[in-house]
Design a protein that fits this description.
By secondary structure, this protein is an all-alpha fold. The protein has nine helices and no strands. The protein has helices at 7-13, 15-57, 62-69, 78-95, 106-126, 129-161, 166-176, 178-221, 229-237.
């Protein structure tokens, strides 16, 4: 009997419930790894775009600056979208017909427009994270359900056979514990990936907020407000 134990034997003898549980865990694993890889590549791409921000400010004009921000054509670029939104907001405020937003000065109008653009970028960055968090929190329980059902099914089989010795029980019970291991194997990468992606998103959002501050100063005053060297050095040390 012990020679027959294993993953394949568990799937064959566990019935439709064990099979469905294994399929669900496999689907969770595929989904979580897909989200981790896709979002991780997006964060790495955004970090390259952060470096291009300095090239934007060293450009001769705004149009050349937009081209400097475009590291990879056709790829999402929150920094370019933020700069484009600021330009559109300025042109709309200055050249549109009389509207309610004229009661706001350019500074307030620009602040609202850039804030909305940053909120949109946050929404795009956070897509998929809720699903990843859900998988990380539920996968262990799905695996535990498979284990409980497997033990229950194994005990029924042993009971029908009329043998309840330790050597007869330990094998099927240990076999059923594989489902718990599967659940943990799905949950641990999902949780670690979620935490890493959240930290990466926070880094990008911080850079977007800083870029928005500089854009606000540029559009309102015509010049980028340089931060004091002491402030930059303190942030670099931090």
């Amino acid at each position: 009997m012990n020679e027959q134990l294993g993953l394949l034997h568990m799937l064959q003898s566990g019935g439709i419930i064990i099979t469905l549980t294994a399929i669900v865990l496999l689907a969770m694993s595929v989904i979580s790894w897909t989200v981790i890889i896709v979002k991780g590549l997006g964060i790495q791409r955004a970090k390259k775009q952060v470096i291009a921000v300095q090239s934007f400010w060293h450009s001769t004009d705004f149009e050349h600056g937009l081209k400097a921000l475009e590291i990879e054509a056709g790829q999402p670029n929150p920094f370019k979208q933020l700069a484009t939104e600021g330009q559109s907001a300025m042109q709309h405020h200055r050249h549109s017909d009389k509207q309610l937003h004229d009661a706001l000065d350019l500074s307030d109008w620009m602040t609202g427009s850039l804030s909305n653009a940053i909120d949109d970028a946050k929404d795009r960055l956070s897509q998929g994270l809720a699903l990843l968090a859900s998988i990380g929190s539920t996968a262990p329980f799905v695996g535990l359900f498979g284990t409980v059902w497997g033990i229950y099914h194994a005990l029924l089989t042993i009971s029908d056979a009329g043998s309840a010795g330790l050597d007869k029980v330990a094998g099927p019970v240990g076999e059923a514990l594989i489902m718990t291991a599967f659940g943990l194997a799905v949950a641990i990468p999902a949780v670690l990936g979620y935490n890493a992606l959240v930290r990466g998103n926070q880094f990008i959002i911080g850079k977007l907020n800083r870029f928005a501050y500089d854009l606000h100063a540029f559009f309102v005053t015509g010049n980028r407000i340089e931060r004091p060297q002491a402030v930059r050095s303190v942030r670099a040390q931090g």
